[in-house]
Amino acid sequence: MIYDKPVFKPGGDRYMLIEFGDELNLALNFTAHGLGDAISQSGLKAVIESAPCFASLLLHYEPDLISFADLRREMMALIDTLGSSAEIELPSRLFYFPTCYLDPWTKACVEDYSAKITPKKWDAEYVAEINGLSGPDQLVRVHSGTEYWVASLGFWPGLPFLMPLDPRSRLTAPKYNPPRTWTPQGTVGMGGAASAIYPVATPGGYQIFARIPIPIWDPERRFPEFEHSICLFKPGDRIKFVPCSVEEFNQTEAQVAAGTYVYNVVGYQKFSVRQYSDWLATVDASKRF
Amino acid sequence: MIDVVVPGLETSVQDFPGRIGFWNQGFPPSGPFDSWSFRLANLLVGNPAGAAGLECQYVGPTLKFTQAAVIAVTGADMTATLDGTPVPLWQSVAVKADQVLKMGPAKSATRAYIAIAGGIDTVPWLGSRSTFHKAGVGGLAGSALKKGSQIPVAYATGTPGRSVKPQCRPAFSSTKQWQIEVVPGPDDDWIDAAGQARFLDSDWKLSGKSDRTGFRLDGPQWTFTSKAYDKLPENGSEPSNIIDHGYPLGAINLAGQTPIILVSDGPSMGGFINPYTVPSAAFWKLGQSRPGDVYRFKAVSVDEAQALRRALDALCSENSLA
User: Which residues neighbour B221 within 8 Å (Cβ) at sequence distance 6 or greater?
Assistant: First the structure.
């Protein structure tokens, strides 16, 4: 649901978490980013930084400059100035990634977890099963059947938190218990109703069943896409996973290593919330690809 | 330059408060675990409290000074010597050119700090010299010191013979037991009353599976309120699963049944709940503990946590020096 009033929660002596709702909904993500932008424009010195996510915004503040109660009041006032997101149109880049679904690397990672930490069904079979799909092959069709919205960056530098824009591709899954201690670089996975790409080998909690061979963060800035930031994405970008074979994955990985890979990204489109909402109303979300 | 003769277990360049302002891209602050000892080391040698220095973990380095300098060693006692002569902790000391500072394993606590007058002069990365090991950025070539590394220093004059008043130094536990303050929230309402009481009344052992991103704790099971069960599927079905959201640094992040304290190089976001948060004024205790040590948590309010922070900041000042 979308809350009538945002909920303000403390995080120790210097953080405030503002929750706008408890569902995955593009409007909530726009509110979180809208408040983040409004804070930046307000010049409020007491806020050191903010981190918007799907349905919430985390503030890091300077307690010597403002109390929790006063910060809450300031935030309520700013939230009241935010307009509706219904008419927002914003430039949105679209990235295409060759994606090796049901790949040997994430499968080996799950097997390693099963052997060393706790026995677990292969993630692709498990996610298909709990979502009522016929099996891993349909999982590939469903998961790759949509564009994904980059709702925020976090967890690890440059990691995109993704929301499927087509409701027919919406899947849900629990997160690992306990989490993995490692995940192969470039792994695509999902947890809750969100998907993500792991920029480097890190611990993780999402169900994993695919991998891309393309860097999404690059401290050495080998490719022109990293000229302005070492993180490839920014919120409001979109991603399309294009299923590919292991051979194509390996070829692309070799191109990346040689520095000859060309990122497949289009930069001429705008995302219109109005058009998206109109289209959403015509889609039967109960159907699957 | 300072030549690294022996690097120690994991000696790294850090500054305070670290790499701030990039949480929304997923960059953690890094920085020293025990900023109390770190800041006092800098003040002893006349540096700004946050200037870049060295954090030594478990076993300290052996360093050869190619130029005369004024240094201070604080934090855990790693039996530092200068050309064989013991170096007093919590004191500024003159080092002559070609002298060798040798440190060993920590006798108690875990982390020692070395400040050099003028500060370490590596190239800042995203505004900070702190090392973020796992991503290979910051510090000296993005990693801990290596044998043969050369540490650049922006030499400045310092005053030897200054010391930190004994009552202004952190008191490290000698019993392997630590009392750590926590502020309930942001997600304490997901834990039931019995679970909250159990958290505060139980011993939590720091697991060996801990690193600069997270301190894993071993202890009893968690129990939850209806909030953890009656929720939309996009949260994830496990009780500890929530829609991905920003994590406070210091959060006690409940991944399944495993609590993980998110420390200096921790993740900025994720989909597990954070029932409690360790306030900044208690981080030094995390930094000076080691796997096998036992934590007891004590709930404090936001106001109390902020008062502790102000008290700690006041201690990290010139007034603490003699």
Answer: B257
